[in-house]
Design goal:
alpha/beta; Rossmann fold; five-stranded parallel sheet; about 10% strand; globular
């Protein structure tokens, strides 16, 4: 079996790639640079994880047009990345408009070209940021897009095993699989020391605290 794994270099996608490997899939790692602030760090982490997994392929694709679109603090440096706010009622400004549809479209092209059986993406919808393109309904709809938009002889299953898990659940899976979290990166702001206050840092720190383990990366605070 062969699977395309969307590998950002973050905690969830790295755990997902290890899970796919444990299920017997040969890994084709796909990393997307969409103009995010921490791209250099994310790329290095993704390359390291792919190497440790013995990935059959590692492809990095530049989709920097998101920086031209703007409207996200991840791709527009003039917009400050919001701090995590438990009372927040709006979608955070780290949301990149319709990003996952773009990434999954590229992953589908890669998967069909490689005759892969599955695409793994580490979206979750429970305790994360409320991004609309992480919802189960979106994933179900995109599976239909894959089925309709590929050759009749192509069969690709979109796999999202973490979609109804919390970050703590995902970390527990990763601990059992031996994921080297020292080679992963979650911070939205920085590439040297994680800020500790953005939404992504918050959920990562909360998960490690919940399982009473030390996070191996360094934080500013």
């Amino acid at each position: 079996m062969k699977a395309v794994c969307l590998l950002s270099g973050g905690m969830d996608s790295s755990t997902l790639a290890y899970l796919a490997k444990s299920e017997g899939y040969e890994i084709c790692a796909l990393h997307l640079n969409y103009g995010q602030r921490t791209e250099s760090k994310e790329l290095a982490c993704a390359q390291k994880i792919a190497s440790l997994l013995g990935a059959k392929d590692f492809i990095a694709v530049n989709v920097g047009y998101f920086s031209q679109f703007g409207e996200s603090s991840l791709t527009d440096k003039e917009i400050a990345v919001e701090k995590y706010d438990p009372a927040r009622a709006h979608i955070p400004n780290t949301y990149v408009p319709f990003r996952n549809a773009n990434l999954l479209s590229i992953a589908t092209s890669f998967a069909e070209a490689k005759d892969a059986d599955a695409i793994f993406i580490g979206v979750q919808s429970l305790d994360y940021s409320g991004y609309p393109d992480c919802r189960p309904q979106f994933i179900e709809a995109f599976q239909q897009v894959i089925d309709l938009g590929t050759k009749d002889t192509t069969s690709i299953t979109l796999k999202t095993p973490f979609i109804r898990m919390t970050k703590t659940d995902i970390l527990n899976v990763g601990m059992k699989l031996g994921v080297p979290y020292e080679y992963t990166w979650s911070c939205y702001r920085n590439e040297d020391k994680a800020c500790g206050t953005c939404g992504s840092c918050h959920y990562r720190k909360e998960a490690f605290a919940a399982i009473r383990k030390q996070d191996p990366i360094v934080y500013e605070e």
